[in-house]
Structures are given as structure tokens and as C-alpha cells.
Amino acid sequence: MLFQKILIANRGEIALRIQRACRELGIPTVAVHSTADATAMHVRLADESVCIGPPAARDSYLNMAAILSAATITGADAVHPGYGFLSENASFAEMVEAHGLTFIGPSSAHIRMMGDKIAAKTAMASLGVPLVPGSPGAVADLDEARAVSARIQYPVLIKAAAGGGGRGMRVAGSEDKLEEAWSQARTEARAAFGNDAVYIEKYLDRPRHIEMQVLADSHGGVVHFGERDCSLQRRHQKVLEEAGSPALDAAARDALGETVTAALMKLGYRNAGTLEFLYQDGQFAFIEMNTRLQVEHPVTEMVCGVDLVREQIRIAAGQRLGYTQADVSFVGHAIECRINAEDPVTFVPDPGRVTAFHAPGGLGVRVDSALYAGYVVPPYYDSLIAKLIVHAPTRAEAIARMRRSLAEFAVLGIKTTLPLHQRIIEDPSFQAGDYTIHWLEHFMAAQAAE
After folding, report:
1. Residues 78 and 46 in one domain
2. Are residues 80 and 222 in the same domain?
3. Per mean pLDDT, which range of 135-139, 222-226, 308-312 is the poorest?
4. CB under 8 Å, gap of 24 or more: what pairs does 439-448 form?
5. Catalytic residue of the set 17, 170, 292, 401
6. How much is the pTM?
7. In this structure, are 27 and 147 located in the same domain?
């Protein structure tokens, strides 16, 4: 057996996803939960469960001591953090290892390095990965910000060094807008991350957001599983993802993959990771690396036929990948829609009781969700309630399958973003694959004006 027992330090659909991989590997699981999640599906289906605190995440899912205590009392010998919460917390990874447990993820050193966007950019530049033009590190003051911005030319993007999720980011279109954007980015960064360090990059006006999925073992084996196009975003939050990208051909994918795998091999990286790039005018520019499983990992699994969570567990147990890049194939096209418990027009969260739930099915359809009829969506956590993923031989067929699946999907009792996704896939620009990271904001503004 790879591990005797795995504690899953997360909740919702990702906790269920990890449970399923563990069950197929014959590994018992421990679910941790807040008092608000006592009846959650990930708790119901786990072999064991431990309540770790009250509803607020800081008192439960972010409570490292409570989670480690749960692992100790249940005899777990490994911890899988999923995504979000403590998944990219280097101190938590260190604490897990210090308690004699295995952290199913990369080393704490790599988590810490990639969690600092400036350190990540510096490391990747040294490994030959292309970057967006910008400051070499944190910008100390407004005078330096002006000098950097003049050098790379406006518009510029001011970004939190410790940031993520679109927080601590502001665009300055001209020098007279720089001071206000600089101040706002630092204030938001300080409030969100306890660190007001910011750096500056050239603002690209029509890029796509392309990311590359990688797995690396502790024996020097590194492979990539192709790209995902995550350009459909609202306020820097991904809404819909595709694998592969309508903007790339096999040659561009292979070239990026070779650059990425070579860099991570030199870095000595281990486990799953995703490198994110902006892509414009045929050029890639690294922006950040996520040292964890991604929300959108299912589209990669669908086109590559690989269980990424299973591979994470195998790698953490010290096993070799057992295959090379030549063994990885890309078949068909996959699309994922993130379904949130939100008003589809205003995006105000709408937690509450699910009075009815019906998931679509059929060939090439997958639903990752922890919902069930009667479940009460709590107001304390992220509003993601389901991921609808489809796979088909071609992109056109995948769109048709997504159209059919969205029409079948029923969640009653709360508002969801299902109608938004139905509007997106009917838009001619989306169907043509002609969109950038700014497209969805313009699309929604036009819809609101009608």
C-alpha cells in the first residue's frame, strides 16, 4: 500500500475528488470538517471524519494545529491539501513533515519560492523561461515605479508580490494614473496578504491565459500534460477552461512543454505543478506557478487519460512516474464550466438550501460536485458548487455536448451561474475560439446593457 491512511485537508468537491482516487488505490481516508460542514458529502463518504472547528475558515480549514491533531489521532500518515486553503502554505507543509507525515505536494522550499511572485520570476528567468517585461524585483517607491513604467512604456500592471486571485492588482494607463494605482495596489496587498510589496509588469492588451500542467517525480522524471486555456475570466477569476487551447497548435504546445519541463528538471521540482503564461503575438511570458492541483485539472485528465490525483499520491510515496513524454498523448478536446452559487448577472453569492439537484450525464460528461438535494450551501466559503466537464473528439463537438449538458443541469433553491455559461457557449466569438483574458468582462457588460 502506498500509504496507510490519507487525511484530506479540504472540503467540497475537491475533497470528494481526492477520496475517489484514494478509494481506487485502496487507501482509507480521513475527512476534516467545520461545524457548518457536518452533513457535507465529503464527510459522509469518508472512512473517518473529525470536526476541526467552527464555520469560519480561519478556525477550521486554516487551523493547522487542529488538522495535524486530527491526523495524529486517526493515525494518518499523509496529508493531501487539495487546492486553496493550506495547499500553498509552505509553513503547513513543513509542519506536516515535522510531524512525521508525508505532504502530498512539492517541497516547502518550492512552495515558498513560487508563492513569492518576484522570487518565482527570478527563478524562472534563470532557467530560461520567458517573462513579461517589467521590474526585476519589488519596486521600492513611487520614483522607481515611474522609472520602470517609463522604461517598459504604459500601460503597466502593478501586482502584489505575495498575491493571487486578482487581489493587489491595478492597471495604470498613463503616468498621471500611476500614483493612484500604486497606492491602491499596495493597500489591497497589505490587507489581503500582510505584505505590501509590489512589482510592475507591462500590461498586455489582448493576451490569452495559457497554463501548462506538469508532473515530476523525485527521481528526475518530468513530463507535461499539455496546455489549458484559462482566458475566460471575471475579475481575474477563471470561469471556463479548455484543453487544449484554440490558439495553439501542436508545435507551439511542444515548444512550451520542452521549455517548462527542462526548467523544472533543473529546479528539482517534485509532484504536480502548473506554470501560467500570458500569450500574445506568438510569444509566451511566464506570470506565476501554482504548486498544487488546479481547480481545472479535469480537462487535462479528459484529454490525456491520466488521474492526476493518483499520480500525486504515487509520487509522494516515492514512486517513479513510469512513463516518458513520448508516452503522453492528447486525444480530443475538453471544456470545463465552473458553476457557482451566485446570481448570474450581479454575481452576488446566493448560499442556501438546494431543493433539487440533477446532474447531466452521457458519453464524455463529468460532473465534480458535492451537492445533493437538501444540502445547505454555507455562506462561509468559496461559492464554487460544481464543475461540469465535457470531452469530445473535436472542439465543435465538445461545445455541442456542453450545450446539451448545461440544458440538463438542474440546481433548484439557489441561484447559480448556469445561465451565464449557456450564454457564453452560444456566442460566436467563443465558438470561433476568438477571445482574450479581457473578452468576458466586455461580453458581460454588453449583455447587461441589452
Report:
1. yes
2. no
3. 135-139
4. 439/231, 439/232, 440/232, 440/233, 440/234, 440/239, 441/234, 441/235, 444/234, 444/420, 447/423, 448/345
5. 292
6. 0.93
7. no
Report how far residue 161's alpha carbon sits from residue 199's, in angstroms, rounded to the nearest whole number: 6
Collapsing DSSP to helix, strand or coil, 106 comes out as coil
pLDDT of residue 398: 98
* Count of other CB atoms within 10 angstroms of residue 58: 9
* DSSP per-residue string spanning 18-56: HHHHHHHTT--EEEEEEGGGTT-HHHHTSSEEEEEESSS
- Asked whether residue 387 is domain-assigned, the answer is yes
Based on the structure, what is the number of domains in the chain?
Answer: 3
Q: Which three cell numbers stand for residue 13?
A: 468537491
Largest CA distance in the chain: 62
Q: Of how many residues is the chain composed?
A: 450
Cα–Cα distance, 232 to 420 (Å, whole number): 12
User: Do 181 and 228 fall into the same domain?
Assistant: no
Range of the domain at 261: 208-449
Give me the helix-helix angle, 108-115 and 90-98, nearest 10°. 170
Q: How far apart are CA 366 and CA 360, in angstroms?
A: 8
- Using pLDDT thresholds of 50, 70 and 90, give the confidence band for residue 305: very high
Q: Is 292 designated active site? A: yes
